[in-house]
Amino acid sequence: MILTELMKSRRTRRAAIARAGTPAPASKNPNAPDEEEEYKPLEWPVVKKMLSWMAPYKAQYAVALTLNVLFTVLELLGPMFIKHLIDHDIAGDPHPLAPVASLIPALHHWIATSPAMADIAMTISLWALAVLAANLINRFNIEYNRRVGEKVMLNIRKAIFAQLQRLSMSYYDRTKFGRILSRGTSDVDALSNPVINGINTVVINAMMMTVAAAMLVIADWRIGLATLWLGPVLYMMNQFYRRRIGTQYRVAREGYTRVSTNLAENINGMRVVTAYNRQAENLTSFNVLQDANTHNNVRVSLMNGVYQPLLSIVGYLGNVIILILGCYLVISSASNGNSRFTVGTLIALTMYWGWFMNPVLTFGNFQNEMMQSMASAERVFALLDLTPEVMDAPDAAPLPPLRGHVVFEHVDFHYVPEKKVLHDVCFEAKPGATIALVGHTGCGKSTIMNLIQRYYFPTAGRITIDGFDLTCVTGDSLHRQMGIVSQSNYLFSGTVLDNIRYASPEATLEQVEAAARALGTHDLFLRFKDGYQTQVGERGAAMSLGQRQLICFTRAFLANPRILMLDEATSAVDTHTEMVLQSALERLVADRTTFIVAHRLSTVVNADLVLVLDHGRIIERGTHAQLLALGGKYAELYRQFTREVAAA
User: Which of 643, 610, 616 is nearest to 628 (CA)?
Assistant: First the structure.
């Protein structure tokens, strides 16, 4: 019985590991929020786009390639120096440079008395000079090549950030934050090595293999035929291995991502985990993911453990063939009294065989990186090719200073065609008026705010401000005259002062303090640990919800916009803080057109116009008193609100 239960438990655990270790099929959309493809075959359209980013620096790439060729040529001279040293210097043949060196008085006596050692010293010295020159060229080339490649990477990163600033809100609504972040980080980083070293890797390694193969054939065609057939074998081995290892690397990376995601979620949600006593269950889930991750990494190691020794065996087999056949040719040449095939030639050929083998592994790794880069490049270029859904028309005109007269004329809107969000919305907000939008969640209040801010264009009808159609003006001139305080009360890392000055970076400390005094928040900021220099933390984590909202109110007041949007602006403020803000709100909305979305109806009592929405339609409109007298939906919502306040 115990054995049966144990076997059942092991089967269940293996099944869980298999599920955790197998990623979902990759999406066809390079910007899709689902699992992403990590490996793709080389595709010319994507390669062509990558080359287009490198094209402005083609002269610099040519210089880098020339330097790399010089470095490789000097490196390839090594076997020739070995050959000359063994076949000529040790054998006592006169050195070609001996007559020139004899002209130097300090060397003349040494060359005359010890010619063999002098010849050896000259060959080694020439080899040392070649090595020194090669390394000096390589040292400069590494820096130069990196500098050129990093310029291309810098341009791509700048283009991505600029594109993210241009894209419409619809892109951010449908794309997960992690996917957006990966475009400018891991996806760009995946392009780094192909952009920086790609051309050099292809050209230099191809040259190395070609020269090495040529030397094998030139030395003796029989050695060429006996060894170079291993080239296709290596190629087929490499192709088979790369296909398998590429898939397994993707599985391993996906497993690691799941482990990291699970760990981050547990850390971020530790309060909830502790509150609901989920530590044991979460540990079990994490251990299953960790087991799968370990299993995946072991499979990668097993595949490498097969391929790497096979590669070494093929390399060793080539050396054995060269040594056996070469030794035979050396002995045969000696017995025939000719010097066509010498010991030096044999040693040089074993070195050239090493030169032939090294690019095989280099090309394999490079191909693996390129396949990974193709998926990343496709996603990066897909992002750069996106056209913003909301953008300035070619003849768009900048807005003059606004009065704030907003008109909706039979506006319809949908995020997806199958589900309309707004239906024939019509209203007028006169300059300086306060308009309150009221209704249940999902009725279209925030959508109206988004349309006024031109985050989206209406699908029917039009919106005008001071008579200007929002589709015919520049977005910059509109947004400079608008301010917003939303329920998310977003703060950037930095101080309280930095966040208040975000919309008006030129404002002085005195101007910030004056705005805070006018709004009634100055004394509250002085109570912070370091006053206005208090660090708010990442996303405002060091501040309470109410404190974040106070900073956002002050930021909007300092910006002094003509049109102010308050989207659930007091939803995160406690009752006491809300009372403090009521008088400040009156000053904040004075002499500017204000749109308010709020569940707490106390913030809309003094509005000049209240619009009651239901399923995207305006079903009631009027002042607070008029709507109460009407006894409709608004009156029902207000009675519900007063009961909740009384119960609290």
Answer: 610
- Residue 72: helix, strand or coil by DSSP? helix
φ, ψ (nearest 5 deg) of residue 235: -60, -45
Residues 6+ apart with CB under 8 A from 266: 273, 282, 286
Cβ-based burial of 622 (10 A; exposed 0-12, middle 13-18, buried ≥19): middle
CA 244 to CA 546: how far, in whole Å?
Answer: 55
Integer Cα distance of 376 and 363 in angstroms? 19
pLDDT in the model for residue 626:
92
Token match 């287009």: residue?
A: 52
DSSP 462-518: EEEETTEEGGGB-HHHHHTTEEEEETT----SSBHHHHHTSS-TT--HHHHHHHHHH
Q: What is the largest CA-CA distance in the chain?
A: 124
How many Å is the Cα radius of gyration of the chain?
37
From residue 126, alpha-carbon distances to 76, 84, 95, 120, 211 in Å are: 14, 11, 12, 10, 21
**Regions of the chain with pLDDT less than 70:** 1-42, 91-92, 94-116, 178, 246, 249-250, 253, 257, 276, 337-339, 361, 364, 368, 539, 568-585, 599-600, 602, 645-648
How many other C-beta atoms lie within 10 A of the C-beta of residue 445? Answer: 24
CA pair distance 131, 137, nearest whole angstrom: 10
Reference 531, options 507, 498, 484; nearest CA is: 498
Which of 489, 519, 493, 513 has its CA nearest to residue 587?
A: 519
**Contacts by 500-507 with C-beta closer than 8 Å and gap 24+?**
500/532, 500/551, 500/554, 500/555, 500/558, 501/555, 501/558, 502/555, 503/555, 503/556, 503/558, 503/559, 504/558, 504/559, 507/558
Say which amino acid occupies 373. Answer: S
Eight-state DSSP code of residue 40: -
Beta bridge mates, 468: 465
Residue 20 is predicted with a pLDDT of 47
Strand pairing partners for 495? 535
Per residue, the 3-state secondary structure of 557-603, as one string, reads HHHCCCEEEEECCCCCCCHHHHHHHHHHHHHHHCCCEEEEECCCHHH
For residues 485 and 557, the answer to whether their CB atoms sit within 8 Å is no
Report pLDDT for 556: 85
Question: In this predicted structure, what is the pLDDT of residue 281?
Answer: 82
Q: Phi-psi region for residue 467, left (φ > 0), alpha (ψ -120 to 50) or beta?
A: left
Tokens of 9: 């438990």
Range 197-202, long-range pairs (CB < 8 A, 24+ positions): 197/145, 197/149, 198/366, 198/370, 199/54, 199/61, 199/64, 199/65, 200/64, 200/65, 200/68, 200/145, 201/362, 201/363, 201/366, 202/366
What beta strand segments (E) does 246-394 contain?
Answer: none
What is the C-alpha to C-alpha distance for residues 114 and 271, in angstroms, rounded to an integer? Answer: 85
- Which residue in 613, 615, 648, 617 sits closest to 634, CA to CA? 613
Task: Please report which helix (H) or strand (E) contains residue 61, including its range.
Answer: helix 58-76
Taking the model in full, what pTM does it have? 0.72
The pair of three-digit structure tokens given for residue 620, joined into one six-digit string: 């009631």
Helix 44-54 / helix 343-385 crossing angle, nearest 10 deg: 90
In the numeric block, which tokens belong to residue 297?
A: 């990494």
Distance separating alpha carbons of residues 582 and 563, to the nearest angstrom: 19
Phi and psi at 242, nearest 5°, equal -65, -35
Q: Tell me if residue 454 falls in helix, strand or coil.
A: coil
Q: Bin 516: left if φ > 0, else alpha if -120 < ψ < 50, else beta.
A: alpha
